[in-house]
Amino acid sequence: MKTAVTTVGSPHPAGPYSQGIVAGGFLFTAGVGPQDPQTGEKADTVADQTRQVLKSISAILASAGASLDDVVKVTAHLQNLTSDFAEFNHAYHEFFTEPYPVRTTVGSTLSDILVEIDVVAKMPD
After folding, report:
1. Which domain holds residue 90?
2. Contact (CB, 8 A) for 83 and 46
3. Residue 36 maps to which CATH number?
4. Residues 46, 115: contact at Cβ < 8 Å?
5. 48-90 pLDDT, tens per residue?
6. Number of domains making up the chain
7. Which residues contact 39 (CB under 8 A, 6 or more apart)?
8. Element (H or E) spanning 54, and its range?
9. 40 torsion bin: left (phi>0), alpha (psi -120 to 50), beta (else)
10. In whole angstroms, what is the distance from residue 31 CA to residue 24 CA?
């Protein structure tokens, strides 16, 4: 059984997919871009885009009763992996505490954005 998770605190899906799905005791999010969910605007820097993405992911998690503390796996896509990694990593660090989730960070061809992130969280008991 799976249950869709939606919130106005994260950008509305641009296609036929859910913001998140709860299944098997875990919450899986779709890839979240840096658009402000209210205005559609996006920041210019990778740090500010990362902050917006993680705020949106936090909203998805909260709507299901979870938080960033429950995240066990992060996949991050950066448009400019080499030049933006340090700035991305600094902003990312503001949102997570030890023990940090495992993370894969890759360079990707993104459509007019600098960062996209998806997570897997263990739902609280």
Report:
1. 2-122
2. no
3. 3.30.1330.40
4. yes
5. 999 999 999 999 999 999 999 999 999 999 999 999 999 999 9
6. 1
7. none
8. helix 46-63
9. left
10. 20
